[in-house]
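Quick log. Single chain, no ligands specified.
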Amino acid sequence: MTNIRIPLELTPQGLERQDDVKKSIDAMLSLIITTPQFSTPSDPDFGFILNNMRFEIFDEREGVVYDSGDTGEGVSVPGLYNKKVSGSSKNLNTFAAELRKSIMTYETRLSELSVNMTYIVEDRSIYISVAGIITETETPYRYSHVMRVWH
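-> predicted structure:
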């Protein structure tokens, strides 16, 4: 099975395809992680809510994001400002759980999905790790992404 390549590329034969399933999933996860939620008119739920908070106050010691008052998008997400930046998707009070939920919705080729996020103060970076099983081949899957903090 071949998958459509992301980012989309148009060739004389149509949309470019990606034969490597892992590369295809990697590209989709990168797209989910880097897209602010509510920024895609055709599907407002697509993306990762943490990107919507780039203009909010980030408390490095507590590892949380504070509400600056005029939040606009994301206001409808209950408990958004109580979530920890570092943590595992096993804990519902983390952004890792939010990311896992988004990945489960939009990347159905993965099962047994877990997401870990670690904030490193010295780097001012959030290290994101995604693990699971590729359902088509039943092989283990790992993906890493580094998100720079907007501070």
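The chain has a mean pLDDT of 83.
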